[in-house]
Write a structure and sequence with these properties.
Cyclin A, domain 1, 2 domains, 4-stranded mixed beta sheet, 10 helices, about 50% helix
């Protein structure tokens, strides 16, 4: 007979061994997925629908494709009261990869599931709007509490964002930027994992300055950016990635900040720039 202490230890060891075996199986499955030939049909979808992918050189296209395979192999994409196909799955993966393309090892450890809704929804996740009920005006959302590792996206709004044309809005990019922002524990418009400390104060000043322009009607940035700093980051990031040439032309300083955040460029203004020589 085993003592109670020995029995507990054996159970603990069995659990640990089970976890290690599962990790080993997952690693082998992921490696096998990454070694698969990228389907030509998927490549056609990326060429036609994902404006970010089309101008990449061959090496970067290959990297993008590998990251798509990795994302799809490690995340759960589920349809809620609708149907999805590989095209929609590729749009979801692209939404996640575009903001983190300069960081090839990043795969959203705080995201487990992406839910695709048949249309927009309200605060109660309802997709049907009855007379007198709250408006159904949410295109995407990051989950909280029991849905903490979940991203929710409206299918028609996701599809319309990925038509291969330049836009200022992209619900997929918007919500995955929120998850990037959330990686440090707070959705506050300061993605600390990507934004170097010396740029934080200048970034906050830039947010305030651009918000003032939006309020005065002298900026073409979506007024939803005025909601708070987190929504500002997500809104301008959509514009930055979906229509970069126009964004740089109209918002040169803001473009520099976002280049620093998402590309690791070093030319964004910082407090050090204001120090006496």
């Amino acid at each position: 007979m085993f003592s109670s202490g020995t029995a507990v230890l054996l159970i603990f060891l069995v659990v640990i061994i089970g976890i290690i075996l599962q990790m080993w199986k997952n690693s082998r499955r992921l490696k096998a997925k990454l070694n698969e030939i990228f389907p030509e049909a998927w490549r056609d979808v990326l060429k036609k629908r994902v404006a970010f992918y089309a101008p990449l050189n061959d090496a970067d296209k290959n990297l993008f494709e590998k990251r798509v395979q990795r994302f799809l192999a490690t995340k759960i994409i589920e349809a809620v009261d609708t149907e999805i196909d590989d095209t929609v799955r590729l749009m979801v993966a692209s939404s996640a990869i575009i903001p983190t393309f300069a960081f090839p090892d990043y795969n959203y450890p705080n995201v487990r599931t992406i839910l695709i809704y048949p249309n927009s929804f309200n605060e109660k996740y309802q997709t049907e709007t009855l007379e007198g009920n709250e408006k159904r005006n949410i295109l995407g959302m990051v989950g909280n509490n029991i849905q903490n590792a979940t991203v929710i996206l409206s299918k028609p709004d996701l599809v319309s964002a990925f038509d291969g044309l330049p836009h200022k809005e992209n619900v997929g990019i918007h919500e995955f930027v929120h998850m990037l922002d959330k990686a440090d524990g707070d959705i506050d418009g300061i993605p600390e994992a990507l934004l170097q400390h010396q740029y934080v104060a200048p970034w906050l000043r830039e947010i305030k300055s651009e918000m003032s322009k939006i309020e005065k009607g002298t900026s073409d940035i979506n007024p939803y950016a005025l909601t708070n700093n987190a929504e500002f980051l997500a809104v301008v990031s959509e514009y930055f990635f979906d229509n970069p040439e126009k964004f740089e032309r109209k918002h040169a300083e803001l473009y520099k900040f976002l280049s620093n955040i998402y590309k690791g460029d070093k030319d964004a203004p910082s407090d050090a720039d204001n120090k006496p020589k």
